[in-house]
Write a structure and sequence with these properties.
Blueprint lengths: L2 H23 L3 H20 L6 H20 L4 H27 L3
Amino acid sequence: MHKLYKILLLGLAAGILNAIPLVFLSTVWQPVTATVLHWLGLSIVIAYARMPLESWATGMLIAALTSLPLSILLYPDSIPGVLQSLGIALVLGGLLGFTSERLVQNQP
């Protein structure tokens, strides 16, 4: 399978995992779609980013920096909602960085 397809599948999985709480909290489809598209694009950025950090730390850093504006837009009046969204982004970003290095970049 082509590397880009693997990266997009990892991003889709992360987007679905992040969108599950949004489905239960709101019935509006725009935040759910924005979250899934965010993780699809973010998976490509994390997979090809080269920083002087471990792959999981790079994923966590990039995910936290890009998820902060989205979290503020999704939860404008709720600080715990923003912190929860950032926590999920840190975990998923670390997992995405780790798995993209192991499953995608190290393959022939």
